[in-house]
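Minutes, project check-in

Agenda point 3 was the complex the collaborators sent over. CS summarized: two entities, 662 residues total, and the question is how they sit relative to each other. Sequences were read into the notes so everyone works from the same version.
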Amino acid sequence: MGSARLADDVAGVDAGVGAVTDGPDGSAAERRALVAALGASLGRVGRMRRRRVGLVFGGLALGLVAAVLISAAAGAHPIPLDRIVALVADPSAPGLGREALVLGQIRLPRIVACVLVGACLAVCGALMQGLFRNPLADPGLLGVSSGAALAAGATIVVGDRIFGQIAAEVLPVAAFVGALSATLLLTLAGRRVGRTETAVVLLAGLAFAALANAALGLLVFVADDRELRDLSFWTLGSFGGVGWPKLTAALPFLVAPLVAAPFLAKAFDALAFGEAEAHHMGHPVERVKATAIVVTALGVGASVALVGIVGFVGIVVPHAVRLALGPSHRSLLPTSALSGALLVVLADLVARTAVAPAELPIGVLTAAVGAPLFLHLVLARRGGAA
Amino acid sequence: MTDTPTLRIRGATFAIAGRRLVDAVDLDVHPGGLTVLVGPNGAGKTSLLKLAAGEIRPTAGRVWWNGVEVGALAPGRLAAIRTVMSQSTEIGFSFRVEETVDLGVARIGRRLSPARRGAIVAEAMIRADVGHLLGRDVRSLSGGERQRVLFAKALAQLEAGGLVAERRALLLDEPVASLDLSHQIGLMEAARAVSATGVAVVAVLHDLNLAAAHADRIVAMAGGRIRRIGTPDEVLDDDLLDEVFALSPRRPAISARAVVPQTWRVRATARPSPAP
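CS then shared the predicted structure for the full assembly.
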């Protein structure tokens, strides 16, 4: 009954805004024609948009499958694609023992980690940007990753001195606590000024990141050789040490933001208009914010715990997706997840093959792509927005 | 049931750091009709609207929507009952005009078919005169155009709310602040059309002429309190200017009623006729 009733009401009231449109006459019949025409245009625009999203999403999915296959094949011990297919079909196939070991125990966990960490970081980046209503927000930039790395680093160095060798399981927990503390600090910084003031949050995040990095530097200064190797792993990132046990432990936390994203998407669109507006539109703002903060901290903490800091994925990927598909989180979040996975799989492929047998730290590669794009984003923003 | 006002406010007080922005306000808003809040800057109009919207909690006093206390209503339910158009909205990302209007329906109209949603969005866009802005980035629009887009979003939300809530309200905080003259009148006419369907409309306005031309009831506030309440004819007089706006009625050229000639208002309500 809704819009039909509305149209009738309008007819009964004689003139509304139509009286001041460019048309010569604001009659009800003319208005109905306008509404019908606009409705048709809206339908057309919507269909085009959905097709575009579908195409980009499909293309990225194909690209990811291809990248995963290439990554599985390439490396110090190349495995032809047909044998990968054979191995996937039957892992205990005869005559493939060595390759089964390389693929199943070394390459596969690494690739799965790349996919999950990439998707997780990209979605976390998009969520933080939505939360702080700023396209520059990013777990790396705002010190969430640094907080995680600092907590892990402090556990390595300080824990070493006090308890001797510490258990490997403690580090992910420490990284998560670090990420959560940093995220909470950021939201507190925003709340101090009343409403979430994005400029304040960004500045507070930058300051916190600088502080955390300084503290990490101090840890590097006092660390011994073995601790130093561990520390540089955290700060530059590497998928080198990922095996199934570590990956399985991090898995639920990496997946948490991906699972939560579909439930948050609509509310995040509304949040772009401010928290009060989102509340006006009927979204449970506090619950949405709390969920986003927790899953972001879980995801970033787990990814730092697993592979160290992989910078710029969280900022570059959502930005590129927004340029291609617009800011709606219903397309942004899933597409960012796919793109992030693709980017990190490719970056890791380059990291371990470019200077083989040595390995580049993956953080160096993502920063090399990310920093120029980030610069472009900042400059374009200055020029574009008022 | 019919006696229950759509919105009931009793003894509502809102204080920040000991300063009472809203001070023990009682107000009933019944279905239909356009209530206009007027008053000088800092009179508490926006705060009162935010209290009604459930955006801020009263320091003392209570607010009910259709007999249910505002705090007891889930956000989704509350959004179906009352739609809010805020005074200023900063938009974080480059949403398109039609996406922005659709956001008004995204939550409370989530069970609607895409076609019905599209129809509601189209109707709201035409009513707010933003149909020609289809496909534009909201952040690239002028202030007035953006305000009309947000009005369209509010109309869409209100319409979608009608599917679940029988008695609804539209709260407008300075909805015409950056609109040109014809769109000011157009928006007020649209708000009147909405109120004629039984929706309670409450608007904060600074323009007393606009208030006089469109309000069924005027609530004049100053210092966080309601000073005068009644029809435009009862409220808008020289005493009001003196008491509420601290303007001496002897000052020439300022009268509550006749800054804009009567003839200028006519075009919006009647068919355009050859000007004399």
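Noted in discussion: Residues 23 and 269 of chain B are 37 Å apart (CA to CA).
Follow-up: revisit at the next meeting once the mutant set is ready.
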